[in-house]
Amino acid sequence: MVSLLRNQKVHNALLQVLYVGSIAAMVLAGIVIARRNLADQGITSGFDFLFKSTGWDVNFSLLPATANDPYWWYFLIGIINTLFLGSVGLILATIVGTIVGLARTSSNDLARLLGRTYVDIFRNIPLILQVFFWYAIITHLPTPRSAHEAWGFLLTSRGLYIPFPNVGSAAFAAATVAVIAAIVLPAWLGRTSRLAQPIGQRHTIQFAAAAAALACSAIILALGRLPDTPLLDFPALQGLNLRGGLRIPPEFATLAIAIAIYGGSYIAEIVRGGFKSVGTGQVEAALSLGLSPWRVFTLVRLPLALRAMLPILANQYVWLMKATTMGIAVGLTDFFMIVALTINHSGQTLEAIGILMAGFLAINLSLAAVFNRINKAIALKGNQLRG
Amino acid sequence: MEMVLVAPPAPGRLEDLKRRFFATPLQAVVSLACLTIMVFLVWKLLNWAVFSAVFTTSGGPEACQAAAGACWSVIAARWRIIFFGLYPYEEQWRSALACVAVVVMTVLSCIPAFWTGRRIALVWGAGTGLFYVLMKGGVLGLAHVGEEAWGGLALTLFIFVTTCLIGFPLAICLALLRRSELPWISRTTGLIIDGVRSLPLISILFTFAVVLPFALPQWLQGDKLYRVILGSALFFSAYQAEIVRGGMQGVATGQEEAAMALGMRYWQRISRILLPQAMRNAMPATINQFVISFKETSLVVIVGFFEILASGNAAYGTGEWRFAYVEVYAFIAFIYFIFVFSLSRYGAFLERRMSVSER
After folding, report:
1. Quick check: A110 and B301 CB within 8 A?
2. What is the CA radius of gyration of chain B?
3. What is the pTM of this model?
4. Which residue segment(s) compose the domain that A194 sits in?
5. What is the pLDDT of residues A223-263, one digit of tens each?
6. Which residues of A touch B160 (CB under 8 A)?
7. How many structural domains is chain A composed of?
8. Residues of chain B with C-beta less than 8 angstroms from the C-beta of A12
9. Which segments constitute the ABC transmembrane type-1 domain (chain A) (predicted)?
């Protein structure tokens, strides 16, 4: 028996069984105890509750939602809210980060100083503090009656009102898809395997594709326009309330601003790192070939920096997606808040936590998959990349 | 033939300025735009925070509200609640002393002389012990103060320190388990690490605070504070484990093979050969992780703890100071900034120091 234990293979197998077994036992014990505790409170486990109506409301939703809707519909709303808020925050943060990052790599001392101050301030203050701060600012804005107004935008404590085209929601969604196509299509066509024409022709085709997609979206908007209304619907005061335009709720605006500013400071550092990684030799070579500074930037520095940035940027985007869970601090019904409310109202604790984990796993994995594909698609080919 | 070397005329001040900021028209535009933004921001900020601000509490909230600038009197009136939360008034010196102990401990552990496993453990053990005794009391004639009364900066520091104290050894264990040669052990650990990393911290804190009591037997539940600290430590260790693992991958395999050839046992190899070098490699990323987790302690406000952010909300949220939210948030942001900025500067210094020693 002792000699059997001394055997390396047996020893290893036992160790593994012990480790995996004890973890599995702990998890199983937890689930068993939780089910018994929940059963004592009269809560039957299982996923039947998904089809019951919730009986409570969500304060922000892109899809129609009433208290009569079932739980599965609410979970879907939560996921869509999280993805929507995440994408808006992501895009804004990328814009802010690119501007600040470029300022930080600029040759101008003043621009560098400004960029550095921005990064140092906003990176070193917790995101949730910034969320609370912006929420306090926005909810203390004047009432609709004495709203700040600029170019048709209204800032009030009830949210931000922006002009909005007078179109049906289906037409608006279709137009959005067309605009996205206008961005994605040229990039997709641009890959050498698809179009083997000379560079000049390829650019023409890309340009034509983008223009066609944009024209499509304009036509859709024109066709979907609500009859007898002006092209843009401006918000305006009517009685005590504001009519028209699109209202962005304070909670959503708060999170979008906070994520844009905080995320922007992180992305700025990534952008700076990316540009720093471009070898000076390559820039000098481009300059000595007689390229103008602008072409050196667009043809040499940017493409190389982008490849260096992308893997880190992907991690940052996953992080920003998870940051949308701060919604619960100001009461925006994102995916996590819906799960928390579900636990409060229905008591289906284990199931809701399981759905939460599965949801975030799916979001993270799909984001990572998208970025891996992009990464692979734009990776430099060949084995003599440096030097 | 004699060569006369004449140095080019030294550029004057004006010349130098012109070269640096107005070399091309574009440069000039950028410089002017940046200068305008900076002057505008600095002037606005100074005007608000200093020139038209009110600093004394003598006028009360009314005089303060009427002022055009910042109302710093809210800090003068409410600083105790921001720093100490609901801690009993007469005992607040203990809370202050406990904070000082933690800060001293952190500063000590930044000095290279303390970077041996035993010394660092001693410093952190002593610091945390002192903090706990001071806060909790019940011995040495100190009155007993339960965890539910802890708050403000002291609670923030306590959560941070205990998170690191539990999370760091756990991270090393997880990293060692993940690089184990036994496939099932490394795979299961990898699954745990990646699973925790894919979840947002808030959801983990919420699970540990609200859901875990259902899944634990009565005797194991413990106080909510300690459960939340455990959750936060788990989250910290999942990220830190990957950093430590990265550090271990940077250690040449020959090192471990040489140790094996010398007949060192597993624990000797790990503690004397692998870990010292791995921790050195992982140092900058580790400091960065400390910075991140210090900022993330503020998330416990969501599961209902009275740490510095929540006590800030309370400081302006009640009664006559309702209008002074910007000042309170600015003050708390400043406190966070001091801690986080000095830590991250220290990290940058370390990185430079190490890159010099490697040359």
Report:
1. no
2. 27
3. 0.85
4. 165-233
5. 777 666 666 777 776 666 666 677 888 889 999 999 999 99
6. none
7. 3
8. 182
9. 79-371
